[in-house]
């Protein structure tokens, strides 16, 4: 049995994410233990890692760095051992170089880019909240089998602007292109919430649980 670490750092839809991951494990028939943890040692030896995040970028970055040894454990698991990683919402945004919400806050710097406020067209509300169509660009294992015109659930005011378009796995149109998913090597993240995206979200999480890094 493999172990997935769902990181508890005081920011994130932990209970919803855990329920969705357990449902996805049943759907995929993955032999996996899902462990909610704030223990850096568990994260360092995990076989898969999920980093959730809800709210303010700076608060999430501060919370993650406040957990003793957690950033180092993430680097050991995700960068050194190359285990599959999934960042959800702000958990994805933290992969960027920096966030610009209320000043500048350093991110993990694993995927080049920055997180800035959405500048939507007139008449479109901020935050961007609700169901939107997912435009898939990459033939990525986590994005397989989602059907025609998949819709997923967003709730955010800031979005990730990638330096390299090759890192853009999917986008949504909200008065302009908004990064919906990013991927590089063993890293994957979504701006939308798979745990709130019903059937499509469960399929996506099931794909992540069975994703084999080549």
Describe, in plain words, how this protein is organized in 3D.
The chain has 214 residues and is α/β, with parallel strands linked by helices. The protein has a single domain, classed as Class I glutamine amidotransferase (GATase) domain (Rossmann fold). Helices cover 27% and strands 31% of the residues. The chain has six helices and 14 strands. It has an eight-stranded mixed sheet with strand order 2-1-3-4-14-13-12-9, with helices on both faces. The protein has a four-stranded mixed sheet with strand order 6-5-7-11, covered by helices on one side. Strand 13 and strand 14 form a beta hairpin. Helix 1 packs across helix 6. The protein is globular and about 50 Å long. The two termini are 20 Å apart. The mean pLDDT is 95.
The name of the CATH architecture is: 3-Layer(aba) Sandwich
> How are strands sequenced across the largest beta sheet?
2-1-3-4-14-13-12-9
Spell the H/E element sequence: EHEHEHHEHEEEEEEEEEEH
Count of strand segments: 14
Question: What percent of the residues sit in helical stretches (DSSP H or I)?
Answer: 25-40%
* Total domain units: 1
Q: Can you say what the CATH homologous superfamily is? A: Class I glutamine amidotransferase (GATase) domain
Count of alpha and pi helical runs = 6
Q: Calculate Rg over CA atoms.
A: 16 Å
How can the largest sheet be summarized?
8 strands, mixed
The geometry reads as globular
Average of per-residue pLDDT values: 95
Low-confidence stretches: none
Level-1 CATH class name: Alpha Beta
CATH T-level fold name: Rossmann fold
Proportion of residues in extended strands? 25-35%
Q: How widely separated are the two ends? A: 20 Å
The structural class is alpha/beta
